[in-house]
Amino acid sequence: MRMIEKNTYYVTTPIYYVTARPHLGSLYSTLIADVIARWQTMQGKKVFFLTGTDEHGQKVAQAAEKAGKSPQEFVDSFIQAYKEVWHQYELGYTYFIRTTDVDHVKAVQQWIRKLRDQGDIYKGFYKGWYCTPCETFVTEKEEIKDTPLCPTCGRSTSIVEEETYFFRLSAYQDRLLKFYEEHPDFIVPKERAHEVTSFVKEGLRDLSISRTTVNWGIPFPDDALHITYVWADALNNYITAIGWGQKGKEKEFDAWWPADVHVLGKDIVRFHAIYWPAFLMASGLAMPKQLLVHGWIKINQQKMSKSFGNVIDPRDLYASYGPEPVRYYLMRYMAITQDGEFSIADLEQKIGSDLADALGNLLNRMVTLAHKFDVVEVPAVAVWGEKSLALRDESSNAVQEYSSYMEDFLFHMALGRAWKFIHQTNAYFHEQEPWKMAKVDSAGFMEILSATCHSLKTIAALLWPMMPSKMEQMLDSIGIPKALENNTLDNIELNMWSTSFMLKKIPNLFEKPEAKEVSATAEASLQVPINTASAVQEIGIEDFAKVQLVVGGIEFAEIILGSDKLLKLQVDFGDLGKRQILSGVRKSYAPEDLVGKQGVFIVNLKPRKMMGFESHGMMLFAITDRQTALTVLTSVPNGSKVQ
Ligand code: MSP
User: CA 394, CA 428: separation in Å to the nearest integer?
Assistant: First the structure.
């Protein structure tokens, strides 16, 4: 299955809109690209792994305005957060492009000039609907009188009526259809290709690629009124990052282009499968080899997204579980071709069963047993017994099947196959009861240790793209140099079980997650019980004066994973500063219902910890069959006293 045509490999991620910190969905696209990059590196390829940020356009400009910052200041403020999370999760990109980079800006302008000079870009007038969150012109087929909802995100659109430059997309319709037909593997998974071909077959209209009513973007060359449409700017990152349009970088460009694979989510297929190939055809450049389209991470059946207020911050998962269990979980349990529901309970369960019990324990049991009988060096075995030979065959099958799944980007299947082999190795070790053999059959004992070490070496190499540093620790524990050249796929396939090992005890590779800090009852006790009329207990005014009540403005609200009651709020109290407050109102309010509202809070309660987060105050609600937030009739300064 392996194709060894050239020794370079170019993989890209979508570039992320910088309107907030990265969330788990953004991490997912980047992780897939990282796993592919590592897999190719393991096979001796020289890899270029590109990621970066999409910083222009109306969506970013609006978010910046809301934050009271200039767009440039606003985007700059998030870049470090992206790089930090990518580093935490060992996402080893080669280059991080920003669409505000001068080289990119100039190259895009050059691209526009070239296409305009050859007649692929012309000036006209556009009237139609626009979805700002998706940065998409939505009505391409017909005139619609009522405001349509965006077919991708379902949100309301707005009318755009302005002079524009068009890209002559319609001229590429037939060439695109021919290209799809001749390259049936262009879009992976294949099922996604149907929606693309049928869209193109319905007829393509020319694409508006400039805006006069947006002012945050790449200035359209030679026409100061126009700004480049954000997708015409962003898609070109795949070529500008490797030197297109930049003097002296021609060789670099030729070395990498065409891309081997663009990784992208299912929401942006049309841009990559229609507009991008047409742009490339017009530019006289080769087509990328494949588009790998993944599904969405969902929470309670809804796409994880900043605008739905249900995002998970990868930093929280990093702090609780470390990067590699999260990498493993996403690659194994989010089947790439489908949407996947993310749940903390499931993540914790799988860390326990797959990583701690099955894999970590196998290594631990073997090394601990060897040490018990003072074995440090496990020499090569001259003649293998039947059971060991059977395990060796399984190892070889596992490598073949795992590789084949990896080549087809079926990571969850590959991992399933690897775990089958881990279970087989566990069974081999356990069934022969080596602890009973150590003193009576030392050769047999050493054979079991050796076969287990050989299996672990193979497992470490196979799983390295998913969990690089854990697998390097595992290799270290059996005395195998972690350098890649020892563990390339070719080396594993050639490995005829002739290695000797030096064993070293290391701390447990994986820990089972501890039980949650806070129980549901503790969560429920968040709400102070209401005194009923019959049980009113009088207090003096001095008692009431002890309770400090203040008006606060809710800046952010988000759900807390694993809790169906709590919301985590960030509240501004003016001179008293900003605070994190947990509130047990998830059943009555969605995060977006509260953001931007003022509420009444007790601010001198002792801080308390719930679900791993500290709460520095309490929000007040009227309690009926639901909770209704107490607020003020007209807006007052945050921090105003309530009495
Ligand atoms: N800026 C464009 C891409 C331009 S590429 C030339 C964009 N940015 S995005 O930030 O909105 O999305 C970037 C990627 O993150 C997309 O592939 C998208 O599918 C992915 N994800 C965002 N939320 C996601 C989930 N909840 N789950 C999985 N991936 C998701 O589109």
Answer: 11
Taking the C-alpha atoms of residue 281 and residue 175, their distance in angstroms, rounded to an integer, is 9
Q: Rounded to two decimals, what is the model's pTM?
A: 0.80
Q: Which two tokens stand for residue 637?
A: 């300064």
The amino acid sitting at 92 is G
What spacing in Å lies between the alpha carbon of 141 and ligand 1's midpoint? 25
Task: Evaluate: CB of 292 within 6 angstroms of ligand 1.
Answer: no
DSSP 535: G
Ligand 1: which of 16, 153, 235 to mutate, judged by most atoms within 8 Å of the beta carbon? 16
Amino acid identity, residue 49? F
Count CA within 13 A, CB hemisphere, residue 476: 11
Tokens matching residue 502: 């030096």
Q: Three-state SS string across 407-431, please?
A: HCCCHHHHHHHHHHHHHHHHHHHHH
Output the residue whose Cα is nearest ligand 1's atom 23. Answer: 25
CA of 264 to the centre of ligand 1 (A): 7
pLDDT exceeds 50 at position 516 = no
Report the distance separating Cα 482 and Cα 494, nearest Å.
17
425 closest CA partner among 404, 397, 464, 405: 397
- Per-residue pLDDT tens over the stretch 575-607: 888 899 999 898 888 887 888 889 999 999 988
Structural contact between residues 265 and 293, judged by C-beta atoms closer than 8 angstroms? yes
**Helix 468-477 vs helix 323-333: angle between axes, to the nearest 10 degrees?**
110
pLDDT, tens digit (0-9, with 9 covering 90-100), for 366-400: 999 999 999 999 999 999 999 999 999 999 999 99
